[in-house]
Design a protein that fits this description.
single chain; about 100 residues; mainly alpha; Factor Xa Inhibitor; two-stranded antiparallel ribbon; about 10% strand; globular; Prtase_inh_Kunz-CS; serine protease inhibitor; Putative bpti/kunitz family of serine protease inhibitor; Kunitz_BPTI; secreted
C-alpha cells in the first residue's frame, strides 16, 4: 500500500512538473521579436505541435527553441528515435513551407 501511494505521488509530481514547464516555455504565442534577423527557431503551437518560425534575434518570449527535438521534449515530453525521425520529417516540411512563404 505504501509503495502504491509513493508511486501515485511520484506520478503526480511528474505531471505537475510537466504542466509547469508547459506554462513556463510553451504557453506563449509565437513571437518573432522586434529585431530583423532571420534565425530559424521552433515554437509550440496552439494546435498542439511544434512548428518552425523565423525569429528576429531579440525580444520574443520563452516559446522558442533551437530544435524540433528540444521543443518536443520541453512541451510534449517526447524523446527518442521516433521523435528524432519525426523531427527530421517536420524540419524538411517546415523549411519548405518557410521558403514558399518567403517567395510570396
Amino acid at each position: 500500500m505504501k509503495a502504491q501511494s509513493c508511486l501515485l505521488l511520484l506520478l503526480f509530481l511528474v505531471a505537475l512538473s510537466n504542466a509547469q514547464s508547459l506554462k513556463k516555455y510553451c504557453g506563449f504565442k509565437k513571437d518573432p521579436g522586434r529585431c530583423r534577423a532571420s534565425i530559424p527557431k521552433w515554437y509550440y503551437s496552439e494546435s498542439g505541435g511544434c512548428r518552425m518560425f523565423i525569429y528576429g534575434g531579440c525580444g520574443g518570449n520563452a516559446n522558442k527553441f533551437d530544435s524540433c527535438a528540444e521543443c518536443m521534449l520541453k512541451c510534449m515530453g517526447k524523446r527518442g528515435k521516433k521523435t528524432k525521425k519525426l523531427c527530421h520529417e517536420l524540419t524538411l516540411k517546415e523549411e519548405k513551407k518557410l521558403k514558399l512563404n518567403a517567395g510570396s
